[in-house]
Amino acid sequence: MTGLKISEVAEKSNVNIETVRYYEKRQLIPEPPRTRAGYRIFSLEDVDRIKFIKRSQELGFTLNEIKQLISISDDKTQVNSEEVLQYSVQKIDEIEAQIKDLEKIKKTLQDLTVQCSGSRSSDGRCPIITSLTGGDSHE
Amino acid sequence: MTGLKISEVAEKSNVNIETVRYYEKRQLIPEPPRTRAGYRIFSLEDVDRIKFIKRSQELGFTLNEIKQLISISDDKTQVNSEEVLQYSVQKIDEIEAQIKDLEKIKKTLQDLTVQCSGSRSSDGRCPIITSLTGGDSHE
DNA sequence: CTTGACTTTGTACCTAAGTACAGGGAGGAT
DNA sequence: ATCCTCCCTGTACTTAGGTACAAAGTCAAG
Predict the structure, then answer these.
(1) Residue ranges of chain B with pLDDT lower than 50?
(2) Which residues contact A104 (CB under 8 A, 6 or more apart)?
(3) What pLDDT does residue A138 have?
(4) How far is CA B9 from CA A8, A40, B13, in A?
(5) Which PROSITE patterns match (chains A, B) (predicted)?
(6) What is the pLDDT of residues A98-120, one digit of tens each?
(7) Which of A15, B46, B90, B116 gives a 20 to 30 Å CA spacing to A84?
(8) Alpha-carbon distances of B15 from B4, B30, B69, rounded to whole Å
(9) Average pLDDT in the A43-67 region?
(10) What pLDDT score does A139 carry?
């Protein structure tokens, strides 16, 4: 009686129906049992798992990483905590690297726009363009 | 005599040969003239343009945006500077938003790992997993 | 003249995370 | 019995920026 149809599970977990089927195919959720007619029957645990997937994605994990995360957390040995921790620390490092790259890009772009605003009255050529075009400055 | 073959232009601008053809198809570089046999003939300006594209990509511009940038800079009216400036300012905003998102993700992940390291001796369940799985905390 | 390195075109494949659609079956209300 | 809505499968398409490959033509050296 607690069985949910695909549209129900999709709605409860705020994803598209196709996404549910896609997660099943990617083996991120277990293969659900079926009615005699072939309809999938989901449980509230499936809803929780999909929400877990979505929250993990927001934290920057890919579906493959999430699959790993799930298998670690399903495996209830005492060591699992260690592995997940390592995963997360690594992910934090990756995010930090991304932030650094973006900061650098931002700085470059800001420098260029400052130059551009400053020298506008001279010849009409934007320093952003000329700096990108000509001067083989960084290689 | 200054004509460059595709492999030469690719090497000089540090991209794959296929990438050069791809940029031509995407109209990021002008259609080069051909020899009677159909071989493309490039110039040093093409090398500069490809380098421009690559540098712009590093600054976070997409190929479509770069195409715009090129058409603005080719159009030598006095207003071009203004447009490029606006483009860049907008891009800076986008980058800032991205950085903010990443900072937030990083903070969440850090909080979780701190909790995880702290409470490791209790029951072996990692707080990262349990916090993602159960507690419908944010929605 | 043959070999090897290069070029041409067109098409298909790649990652990531889905979305869309076609063609068919099922369930329940009228 | 019919209608509407839902579900099934399988396949193709999407974005972005390329990469890879096959079959064929070209060029220069030996």
Answers:
(1) 121, 135-139
(2) none
(3) 36
(4) 57, 56, 6
(5) HTH_MERR_1, HTH_MERR_2
(6) 999 999 999 988 888 887 776 65
(7) A15
(8) 14, 17, 20
(9) 93
(10) 33
> Which residues numbered 27-56 in chain B sit less than 7 A from strand D, measured from CB?
35-39
**What is the pLDDT of chain A when averaged over all its residues?**
84
Q: What share of chain B is helix, strand, coil (3-state, %, to 5)?
A: 65, 5, 35
Question: How far is residue A76's CA from residue B130's CA, in Å, rounded to a whole number?
Answer: 12
Q: Tell me the C-alpha distance between A113 and A127, whole Å.
A: 8
Copy the structure tokens of residue B12. Answer: 């000089």
Domain boundaries of chain B, sorted by first residue = 1-74, 81-139
3-state secondary structure of B112: helix
Residues in chain A: 139
Query: Which carries the bigger pLDDT value, residue A31 or residue B134?
Result: A31
Contacts of A92 in chain B (CB under 8 A): 106, 109-110, 113
Min distance B50 CA to chain A CA atoms (Å): 9
- d(CA B128, CA B102) in angstroms, rounded, equals 18
Task: For residue A89, give the nearest of B123, B116, B135, B124 by alpha carbon.
Answer: B116
Lookup: nucleotide whose C1' is closest to B37 CA: D26
| CATH T-level topology, domain B1-74 | Multidrug-efflux Transporter Regulator; Chain: A; Domain 2 (1.10.1660)
